[in-house]
Amino acid sequence: MNSCAGFKFLYILQECKFYYKLKAYLNIYKAQAAPGPYSQSVVAGESVFSLNSIPLEPLSEEMINKGILTRKE
């Protein structure tokens, strides 16, 4: 491995550590709660990772098994 490749690896490693320090968790107060032990959204650097939620009835929290056309109304 040449020294240039090693330097590039160290630069990427340092860049990743920098992004991990700039991590924020977003939880929306009135949004549906996450069905597991994770956040609704995470911001890391310039990237936003959001939860893909399943269709649940808000009051009963039962899964809605209807087609997409009935959900968009």
Quickly list its features.
alpha+beta, 73 residues, disordered N terminus, three-stranded antiparallel β-sheet, 2 helices
Structural write-up:
- The chain has a three-stranded antiparallel beta sheet with strand order 1-2-3.
- By secondary structure, it is α+β, with helices and mostly antiparallel strands.
- The N terminus is likely disordered.
- It is elongated and about 35 Å long.
Strand fraction: 15-25%
Q: Please work out how many helical segments DSSP would assign.
A: 2
Q: Biggest sheet, open or closed, and with what strands and sense?
A: 3 strands, antiparallel
Task: Give the beta-strand count.
Answer: 3
Helix and strand composition category = alpha+beta
Termini distance? 59 Å
Going across the major beta sheet, what is the strand order? 1-2-3
Average residue-wise pLDDT: 62
| Envelope shape | elongated
| Unreliable sequence segments | 1-14
What is the ordering of alpha helices and beta strands?
HEEEH
Radius of gyration of CA atoms, rounded to a whole number: 20 Å
Blueprint (SSEs and pairs):
Blueprint: H1 3-21, E1 23-26, E2 41-44, E3 47-50, H2 68-71
Antiparallel strand pairs: 1-2, 2-3
Could you provide a short overview of the structure?
With 73 residues, the chain is an alpha+beta fold. It has helices at 3-21, 68-71, and strands at 23-26, 41-44, 47-50.
